Amino acid sequence: MFFGLVVIAALLMMVLTFSLNKSEGYSGGNTLTIYNWGDYVDPDLLKKFEKESGIKVIYQTFDSNEAMMTKIEQGGTTFDIAVPSDYAISKMREENLLIPLDKAKLPNRKYLNPRFMDQSFDPENKYSMPYFWGTLGIIYNKKMVHDIPFTSWNDLWRPELKNQILLIDGAREVMGLGLNSLGFSLNSTDEAQLQEALMKLKEMTPNVKAIVGDEIKILMAGNEAGVAVTFSGEAAEMLDQNEDLEYVIPKEGSNLWFDNMVIPKTAKNVDGAHKFINFMLKPENAAQNAEYVGYATPNEAAVKLLPKEISSDERFYPDLDQLKNLEVYDNLGKKMLAHYNELFLEFKMYRK
């Protein structure tokens, strides 16, 4: 009797463990666990992939690259696909957290725009394939900031913008715009240039209303501030909510960012992961995803399938000449990144 109860208890524990593992990202040959940003894929495409491949999709989300990397590095949770940003891919490569892609299983990569391939964070795209891309720029309320054309980062220093500007809470972004406004690279490691950028940023402080994160979308849509520095995808959402807003990429240059699909070391269904990446690179799927999410697709063939009002909008699909002034964030190393954070903290403390 006692032995029977022990066996039953053991079986129940096995079932419970399997269920927990599955909910936490356990994958096998017939399941695929995807780790992505929230609301960053059309749910209908996941259903379509399941129907076409016979593979069940388990979709989990993260809210920062750091949180995603930490969970993958810990290794207790299985993920077959992840969608990190450019600098995070570089770090994951260095820390041996990624599986090299089998290009033979990704024939649809031929549809990707060559301009978005072979970036510094992943030379030859050995570990990643582009998913979405965008820029960092200025969004402003045309009714609240009359007669300011906003073509340059230097417009943020105009005295008439006192207490009107929202800055994104990011060291690379804010230090980068300071560097760009002076004609320097946003990846500069030159101490004299960094100090000059910091001093110039301090001169902007009377204009800075707040340094915030996701709140920018709510505040700008609600006419709580006249100007903000934000990413193009976030800007697209704000423009949908408030017709008085406009988004521009400053002429001096800015950040060109990427979110790419990768296969983490935790993957159990590597073949299924390749099938999913190739599925998302199919032009009609990439176009559908871009329409749903609202971010720019790197898929050249997919752009041709988008409605003209989307593909011809140069705020979010700028021409190649404009892209020449944009830079991807380099992985500057822990020491230099810490220095950027220190300088940014000094700027924030100076405001107070």
Please describe what this structure looks like:
With 352 residues, the protein is α/β, with parallel strands linked by helices. The chain folds into 2 domains: 193 residues, D-Maltodextrin-Binding Protein, domain 2 (3-Layer(aba) Sandwich); 151 residues, Periplasmic binding protein-like II (D-Maltodextrin-Binding Protein, domain 2, 3-Layer(aba) Sandwich), CATH 3.40.190.10. It contains 14 helices and 10 strands. The strands form 2 sheets. Strands 4, 5, 6, 7, 8, 9 and 10 form a 7-stranded mixed sheet that branches. Strands 2-1-3 form a 3-stranded parallel sheet. α2 links the parallel β1 and β2. α5 packs across α6, α5 crosses α14 and α6 runs parallel beside α14. It is globular, with a radius of gyration of 22 Å. The N and C termini lie far apart (72 Å).
